Amino acid sequence: MKGQALERSLAAEINYHTVHVSSILPSSACKPSAKGPSRKSSLTVVHRHGPCHQLNQESSNRETLTQILSEDQTRVRSIQARHAFGADTDKIRGSKADLPAKRGSAIGTGNYVVSVGLGTPAKSYTLVFDTGSDLTWTQCEPCVRVCYKQQDPIYDPAKSSSYSNISCNAAQCSALSSATGNSPGCSASNCLYGIQYGDQSFSVGFFAKERLTLTPTDVFNEFFFGCGQNNQGLFGKTSGLLGLGRDPLSIVSQTAQKYGKYFSYCLPTKSGSNGHLTFGKGSVPNTVKFAPFSSSSSQSNAFYFLDIQSISVGGQLLSISASVFQTAGNVVDSGTVITRLPPAAYSALRSAFRQQMSQYKTAPALSILDTCYDFSSQSTVKIPKISIVFSGNVKVDLGIEGILLASSSSQAGSWGLHLVDAPKLN
């Protein structure tokens, strides 16, 4: 009997997270991590909605969880549409690069930000970094129609000695079609870009090249980017977007000669800490495992895809057909808040999770989160671990922050399962 009890205890330790409820509440104070890469080609990463983001200090700037989840759903639908129908929406034609200034919900282009230098002399700008986008752009003076409110001074090309527009007949101008999903425009022989997102938020302006400073020693004299003079969307007062996608115009491709198309990022485990975005290969510990990107998807060049082999909950392997994951495709996207799974996979995961959490009081659904719990009377909780095995037999155990999402910074709030089923594409 003692042996069986010990066995059950060891199984619980291996297959469950036992945590204090207070430890999984959102951070209200910035506590930067002392750890980080020693390499010079690294940028500090902070959460767009967290206390370490200097542009988010005013309470009036902070979005509610319901707003964040709504924006997240919009972003996922946009990614699904691009994956299903291809990138070319051809929204811009002729010489007039002008998109309707229709205000939707936030653009949802990402939740983590970095700071880079732009121009000569270099000035610092805070950009959302996004593995699901390709073109880097920033708001520019003069704002022809409208610029959303940002914290940094708006970039002014007239004050930089290294700025120049790209001509309409340049090869880089033609390349905008794949990077933005829109054909380029032309004005007085200058190339115009336009990028529009699922909720009709957008950026329009001149396609140009400029001096980009990532670190004091890593400077790129001819970096192609968008100089946005007509921009609409809620970007949390950032200056624009850093595109880390797979297109030739992404920062990953443009810096390939120096970094070899290698980059890595470590996201903050809590919104009150910081992470890093590092360019280049560098040394890799022997303990690190790699899962290959999928090449089976028809849109594999647009996003970073991984193949899922299996999922387990609390040590229980879920019965999910391999065809479920092969059909849907699995996108790695830094801008998406909630993990989406194909409906059949999510149904199996949710059922197992609810069964293993049956001892806890349930709470009403919160927006798209349909499995929620009330821990107000608990000091410690035992949460089943969720493990995902990718191709190459690479197993990833989700941290507690990847399993449960708190509805507020108070223990009186509810916690929702941090995974949902993917929305249907209408």
Per CATH, what is the topology of the largest domain? Answer: Cathepsin D, subunit A, domain 1
- Low-pLDDT ranges: 87-109
Tell me what the CATH architecture of the largest domain is. Beta Barrel
Q: Write down the CATH class of the largest domain.
A: Mainly Beta
Number of helices: 8
Order of strands across the main sheet:
3-4-11-5-10-9
* Tally of structural domains: 2
User: CATH H-level name of the largest domain... which superfamily?
Assistant: Acid Proteases
Domain Peptidase A1: 112-426
Active site: 130, 333
InterPro entries: Aspartic_peptidase_A1, Aspartic_peptidase_AS, PEPTIDASE_A1, Peptidase_aspartic_dom_sf, TAXi_C, TAXi_N
Protein name: Peptidase A1 domain-containing protein
Please tell me about this protein's structure:
- With 426 residues, the protein is α+β, with helices and mostly antiparallel strands.
- It is 17% helix and 31% strand.
- The chain is built from 8 helices and 26 strands.
- The strands form 6 sheets. A 6-stranded mixed β-barrel has the order 3-4-11-5-10-9. The protein has a 4-stranded antiparallel beta sheet with strand order 16-15-22-23.
- β12 (263-266) and β13 form a beta hairpin.
- The model is unreliable at 87-109 (pLDDT under 50).
- Belongs to the peptidase A1 family.
- InterPro entries: Aspartic_peptidase_A1, Aspartic_peptidase_AS, PEPTIDASE_A1, Peptidase_aspartic_dom_sf, TAXi_C, TAXi_N.
- One of its GO terms (biological process) is proteolysis.
- Residues 27-46 are annotated as: Disordered.
